[in-house]
Write a structure and sequence with these properties.
- By secondary structure, this protein is an alpha+beta fold.
- It has 2 domains: 7-67 and 87-146, no CATH class; 152-247, no CATH class.
- The chain has helices at 12-16, 22-31, 36-56, 64-71, 88-95, 99-122, 126-146; strands spanning 152-157, 163-169, 174-180, 189-197, 200-207, 211-214, 224-231, 244-247.
- Strands 1-2-3-6 form a 4-stranded antiparallel β-sheet. A 4-stranded antiparallel β-sheet has the order 5-4-7-8, with no helix packed on it.
- Strand 4 and strand 5 form a beta hairpin.
- The protein is globular.
């Protein structure tokens, strides 16, 4: 997609995620008060990251703070930190020209990481470890798709006006769906994603509301992503009219 704005405008996502180099951060901070578009972009990226983190947040159990403080004396200290190369510069460069996909990637990273920490702190046992592993796999897949060289981004609105974004990559054989403004489905109902291929709709996962999810299945060869309301648990084929049918770039 061609860039129609100067380079400084593409810093909005990196600025919202605190991923700019100091000089770039200062330059963009000076530019921000004078650019309404950038202020709106920064606010939207910050709101998306906050919604994703809040959706996965969990209330710590009673007594966790006291148990943690009581165990401090028995915890072995970590070795001295070793200087490593800072990834900030590389991340800022990659964000230019791919602000939306990588902002979503960073939002997903923040949300899933928060959920993983909460899981390990508040739950024990094999079931908790399996959930953490699945979350890590989803994070790896999402990050791979969003940062892929052939990542393609399309935007659309549902029939109810919710904003949606799909980022897909044939080389990574994956796609990521993000929604903002989806109303809570009625009791016993859920949102379901679909991949349109060869005139047939293939189930591609469930969506429970606003946020970002990795689609099930390989989007290679798919012509569109659909969204419907289905019975809880999903359906083998759509049972309602689509709320969204977003064409994927060929």
């Amino acid at each position: 997609m061609k860039q129609h704005r100067s380079d400084v405008h593409t810093f909005a996502a990196a600025y919202a995620l605190h991923a700019l180099e100091p000089t770039e951060h200062d330059d963009f901070g000076t530019h921000l008060p004078h650019c309404e578009d950038c202020r709106r972009d920064v606010a939207e990226f910050e709101a998306t990251a906050a919604r994703l983190a809040a959706a996965t947040g969990r209330t710590p159990p009673d007594g966790l703070k006291q148990r943690t403080l009581a165990a401090v004396d028995g915890v072995r200290q970590l070795p001295p930190p070793v200087d490593v190369a800072r990834p900030t510069a590389g991340l800022a460069r990659r964000l230019r020209g791919k602000a939306v996909p990588l902002a979503l990637a960073a939002s997903v990273t923040a949300a899933v990481s928060f959920a993983g920490v909460a899981t390990w702190q508040h739950q024990r046992g094999e079931q908790a470890r399996e959930r953490a592993q699945r979350a890590e796999q989803r994070l790896d897949t999402a990050g791979s798709v969003l940062a892929a060289p052939d990542a393609r981004t399309v935007h659309g609105r549902t029939t109810g006006g919710a904003l949606t974004t799909v980022v897909s990559s044939d080389s990574r054989r994956g796609a990521v769906f993000t929604a903002s403004g989806l109303p809570t489905p009625a009791a016993g109902r859920t949102y379901q994603l679909w991949l349109a291929r060869g005139g047939t709709m293939h189930p591609a996962g469930l969506v429970h509301g606003d946020g970002t999810v990795v689609l099930d299945g390989d989007p290679s060869g798919a012509t569109a992503v659909g969204l419907t309301v289905e019975p809880a648990g999903g359906s083998a084929q759509p049972t309602t009219q689509p709320l969204l049918l977003l064409a994927l770039p060929s």
